[in-house]
Amino acid sequence: MRRPRYCMVFVREVTAIFVVAYVIVLLSLVVSVGGDPESYEAFRDFLASPGMLVFGVITLLFTLFHSVTFISLIPRGMAVWRNGKRVPASTIAGPGFVVFAAVVAVVLLVLLP
Amino acid sequence: MGSKVTFEVFRFDSETEESSYQDFEMEYEDEWVILDGLNYIKGFIDGSLSHRWSCRMGVCGSCGMIVNGYPTLTCSTFIRDYLPGPIRVEPLTNFKVERDLIVNLDDFLRKLQQISPWIVRDEERAIEHGEYLQTPAELATFKQFTLCINCMLCYSACPVVSHELNFIGPAVLTLGHRYNLDSRDQGADMRLDEMLSSDGIWSCTFVGECSQVCPKHVDPAGAIQQSKVSGVMAYFKSFVMSSGSRE
Ligand code: SF4
Ligand code: FES
């Protein structure tokens, strides 16, 4: 691609497809929990298959990429003014990163034994 | 005069519809910009070459072209930055070419009018009541967006413009946002009707290339995202107002 930025946006859009795919997997898990125990076990085995593990790792990396680029772009769309001066981008994106890191930490604490 | 450089210039004849690239070799001086090279070609090598320019100082916005594949203001870009060459000069992409390096501006001007880029008042104040006053802080909120020189480099860089002919486009949407932010203006609702239409801000996918090529650091991509936020706020406001008035 001649323009790196076009490529970057394309990659960003593609990462969203993986996020949606993972949501579908999660919903399927919820459905299987409501079904009979055999189908739930079968689904768990499916999730533990090498293909799904690779899919999980790729989705994790893509989700991180999508989240970080999304938070970095927030200040461009939010013009906050204080005393006639525009609040710096880092002041707006910073709390976004902090909230993101906190949510990740809470999820890890809940999931990890 | 000293070293030599070659320009590969796009030529187009609208009568025969034939296009080609023509090589021009010339001696140049170190402080020459791309536009100087084109003017040299027109003045001393081939007077039939057609290109637009006026101020030669990055103010009028008429000398935008594609230089080595990138939308560029040719009066503000030095030949020495493209050495050893050859330097390919083409008309702005995403516009119909009239002749050689000149593009047709009709569509852009139509879009410009569509957005009412002037101060709209519900009721004009009589002249004897004086001017509309504005504080420096109020001016600061939109000053960056007033710096646009309508060079249309952003239209050339935008992948959405290339696919959606009716997309109002970066510079015009930025200008709409500029007037919506102006404390003297009362036309935001009317402008937002256009800006929120299917050809408006929601067609922007935030590639951001428009801001990258903008020679005046206007940040049209930022302006469009800010308009999206304003549009959503206006929607919720009207929603709350209309549910309130039903009770
Ligand atoms: S926003 Fe920038 S690139 Fe677009 S027309 Fe205005 S000055 Fe040119
Ligand atoms: S000639 Fe006016 S901006 Fe280049």
Description of the molecule:
The complex is a heterodimer of chains A (113) and B (247). Chain A has one domain (4-111): 3 helical TM bundles of succinate and fumarate reductases (Up-down Bundle), CATH 1.20.1300. Helices cover 82% and strands 4% of the residues of chain A. Chain A contains 4 helices and 2 strands, in the order αααββα. Chain A has helices at 4-34, 37-47, 50-77, 89-111, and strands at residues 81-82, 85-86. In chain A, strands 1-2 form a two-stranded antiparallel sheet. In chain A, a hairpin with a 2-residue loop joins strand 1 (81-82) and strand 2. In chain A, helix 1 (4-34) packs antiparallel against helix 2 and helix 1 (4-34) packs across helix 3. Chain A is elongated, with a radius of gyration of 19 Å. Chain B folds into 2 domains: 3-103, Beta-grasp domain (Ubiquitin-like (UB roll)); 106-246, Alpha-helical ferredoxin (Fumarate Reductase Iron-sulfur Protein, Chain B, domain 2, Orthogonal Bundle). In chain B, 36% of the residues lie in helices and 15% in strands. Chain B contains 9 helices and 7 strands, in the order E-E-H-E-E-E-E-E-H-H-H-H-H-H-H-H. Chain B has helices at residues 34-45, 106-114, 136-140, 153-157, 159-163, 170-181, 188-195, 209-213, 220-246, and strands spanning 4-13, 18-27, 64-67, 70-73, 87-90, 97-99, 102-103. In chain B, the strands form 2 sheets. In chain B, strands 2-1-5-3-4 form a 5-stranded mixed sheet. In chain B, helix 6 crosses helix 9. The longest helix of chain B has 27 residues, at 220-246. The termini of chain B are far apart. The model of chain B has no long low-confidence stretch (mean pLDDT 92). Classes of the chains: A mainly alpha (113), B alpha+beta (247). The A-B interface holds A 2-3, 5-6, 9, 13, 73, 76-79, 81, 83-86 and B 69, 136-137, 140-141, 157, 159, 205-209, 212, 219, 221-222, 225-226, 228-229. The complex binds iron/sulfur cluster and FE2/S2 (inorganic) cluster. The site of FE2/S2 (inorganic) cluster has 12 residues of chain B, from loops.
